[in-house]
Amino acid sequence: MKSELYELIRSELRVRLGRLTQAALDAHAAATDPGSKAEGKYDTRSLEASYLARGQAQQVAELGEAVGVFERLVPEEFAGDEVVGPGALVEVDVSGESSWFLLAPVAGGLVVELQGMEVTLLTPESALYQKLLGLSVGDVLDDPVMMVMEVG
3-state DSSP call for residue 71? Predict the structure, then answer.
């Protein structure tokens, strides 16, 4: 199941990279278009377009890096009795509802659906990632209140 999840993540990241790359190219074209030249001292269209183009180019680079990381990443399988570590797929119970998290190196916040379950990617920068590290099945977190149901 984890291999299928990783392939789904790779596919979603590639699709997003393609869309974002096109948006960045469009923003760059708008920023360099002679028609966007300022018509007066208060006209900031060209400046705004250049800021947008720069921001989107940075996002393309970051997303491209995430795609590369997941292209090289090999899913690590965890036995159900192991503690949560980097690469773990963790099911938690939050107020009687099941939630799934993948402790990933990049692409935090990405949500993918696999076999009817939503899996949210958490990165080391996430407080929840840090709180889940070292827990095992049956352990309970206080903030947010949740219990580890499965580690895979």
Answer: helix
Spell out the domain ranges in the chain: 2-72, 89-151
Sequence-distant contacts of 58-67: CB under 8 A, at least 24 apart: 59/20, 59/24, 60/17, 60/20, 60/21, 60/24, 63/13, 63/16, 63/17, 63/20, 64/17, 65/106, 66/13, 66/106, 66/107, 67/10, 67/13, 67/14, 67/17
- Convert the pLDDT of each residue in 97-106 to its tens digit: 999 999 999 9
Strand order through the sheet with 117-122:
111-114, 117-122, 97-103, 89-94, 145-151, 140-142
Neighbouring residues of 22: CB distance < 8 A, sequence distance ≥ 6: none
- Which residue from 104, 101, 114 is spatially nearest to 72, judged by alpha carbons? 104
Q: From CA 27, how far away is CA 83, in angstroms rounded?
A: 46
Q: What is the pLDDT of residues 22-62, one digit of tens each?
A: 988 887 887 777 766 667 777 677 778 788 888 888 999 99
pTM over 0.90: no
Structure-token pair, residue 76: 């690590």
